[in-house]
Specification:
ten-stranded antiparallel β-sheet; mainly beta; 43% strand; 243 residues; 2 helices; six-stranded antiparallel barrel
Length: 243
C-alpha cells in the first residue's frame, strides 16, 4: 500500500489531518515531526520526540531490517498516525496508534509513502518525551547555517532549524568527534555552522555533504562540535513551503 506525495498530510474532511513522525537512529529511536509552513494545515510545528512503542520491539525490528536493505538509497522511514488529533496535545501526554511507513524518493524527486504494517501499533508520548516543540513563524533567517541537535550516545542527529518561509526541512545523522553529554542532548540545543552562510531561502539539496567533516558551535554553552555527516533521514523543500 502506498500514497502519493500530494496526500502526505491528507485528512478525511475539513481541518482533520494525520501526522507523520520521521524515524531517526538505530539503538535509540527519535521521532521528528513532518512539518508544513501552512498555518491551516495543523502541521506548522517543528518537534523532536521520543515515544514508547508498545509492541515488544516488533516495529523497531521491522524498521531496522528494512533500513539495512536500503541503507545507501534515498529512503526514509516514518510513523503515520491515521487518527486525527491536534499536535500540541502531545505536550500533555497522549496515546495514539500508528503504522510504519517506508518513504521512497523517486527519480523525479517525488515521494512515495509505502505502508509496511497491516495492523496499527499503539505508542505513548509523555510530556517528558517532548524534547523540542515550536510553532513555526516569528523566527528570522539566521546568519549562518543552524540545526537542532539531539540524540543519545554516539548516535547524534541534526534537524535544520525551520526559520522564515521559504526554507528546507532536513534531518541527518552525524558522528561527532567530541562526546556530548546526555543533559545537553536533552535540551535539543542549536548548532551553528559558522563556515556556511544561511541561504535565506529554500535550497534543493543539502549544504551538508555526506562523508564530509564540519564544525559547529552549540549555542547552549559555546562548545565546538566537530562532526562527519552520515545518513540523511529526511528532506523536503517542496510541500513544506506550500501556503
Amino acid at each position: 500500500m502506498s500514497t502519493a506525495e500530494s496526500t502526505e498530510h491528507s485528512g478525511h474532511s475539513g481541518h482533520e489531518h494525520i501526522h507523520r513522525f520521521l524515524i531517526l537512529g538505530k539503538k535509540k529511536l527519535f521521532f521528528y515531526h513532518l512539518a508544513l509552513y501552512k498555518e491551516t494545515s495543523g502541521h506548522n510545528y517543528q518537534a523532536v520526540l521520543t515515544l514508547d512503542i508498545k509492541d515488544g520491539g516488533a516495529l523497531q525490528k521491522k524498521y531496522l531490517e528494512d533500513r539495512a536493505q536500503h541503507e545507501d538509497k534515498q529512503v526514509y522511514y516514518a510513523l503515520r498516525c491515521p487518527h486525527h488529533f491536534e499536535l500540541p496535545e502531545l505536550q500533555q501526554g497522549k496515546k495514539f496508534k500508528v503504522h510504519l511507513e517506508r518513504v521512497v524518493v523517486k527519480s523525479d524527486g517525488s515521494r512515495d509513502f509505502q505502508q509496511m504494517t497491516d495492523t496499527e501499533t499503539e505508542v505513548e508520548c509523555t510530556p517528558a518525551d517532548v524534547l523540542s516543540f515550536r510553532k513555526l513563524g516569528g523566527l528570522d533567517y539566521p546568519e549562518y547555517l543552524t540545526y537542532l541537535l539531539f540524540g543519545e550516545g554516539d548516535e547524534i542527529h541534526l534537524a535544520h532549524q525551520l526559520a522564515k518561509h521559504p526554507n528546507w526541512d532536513e534531518a541527518v545523522t552525524v558522528t561527532t568527534k567530541q562526546t556530548i553529554d546526555a543533559a545537553t542532548l536533552k535540551k535539543v540545543p542549536t548548532l551553528v555552522i559558522e563556515s556556511i552562510k544561511d541561504p535565506h531561502n529554500k535550497v534543493t539539496e543539502s549544504p551538508l555533504k555526506k562523508g564530509q567533516q564540519y564544525q559547529g558551535k552549540l549555542t547552549v554553552n559555546g562548545a565546538a562540535v566537530d562532526f562527519i555527516v552520515g545518513r540523511q533521514g529526511w528532506w523536503n523543500h517542496t510541500s513544506l513551503n506550500d501556503v
